[in-house]
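Subject: Predicted fold for Germin-like protein, 222 residues

User T.R. writes:
Posting the sequence so we have a shared reference for the thread.
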Amino acid sequence: MESPLNVLSPFFLYLCLLLALFQAPTPCISDPNPLQDFCIRTSPAGQSAATCKAASAVVSDDFFFDGLTKEGNTSNSFGAGLTQATHVQFPGLNTLGIAMARIDLAPGGLNPPHTHPRGSELVMVLKGAVLVGFVSGDNVLYQKVVRRGELFIVPKGLVHFQKNTGKGKAIVIVVFDSQFPGIVPAPFALFGTKPAIDSQLLAKAFKVDGEVVTSLLSNFGN
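User M.O. replies:
I've generated the structure tokens; pasting them so everyone works from the same file.
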């Protein structure tokens, strides 16, 4: 006779998979835990699969990055400069599940609405006064003016923004719980795609006439 345990094993395996997927999804969708002390990225930045620098060749400078000390360029239409520190710019972050960025905002500068599909964002203002906000899945806006030393958290995947509301320049540091959180700027995702999204589709979605959409498309090179 077949053992009851043999009969039940597939069922319990299936049950465990369901529990892992629906009751504790975080381990399944977050950056994987590293399997070694470190993995200094050596493959080209455009490749998702990174190869590790030989441990014997690793030096202290592989764990050092000074990019966030440099002022970002705000001479653009948004008045915002972004300096990233992901595993692309800072190979020592590879496999560690964290990343940072510096945002410089001129007076009135805006980091336009965008999302990070793979990471939550912790915002800390170093200088100035910055309006930070995000929109929930229920279309509720949560926002607050954040000042020096204060924090604001943006949950993973939600549309959010930062706007300088002070009289002078503002500096923001953001931290992500992913080594490569990704960024999808809403204006460019809708009006700056190649090829362009059908203008009639956009006009219907935004409940405006075609001339408005044509103007928006032209602003983003379409």
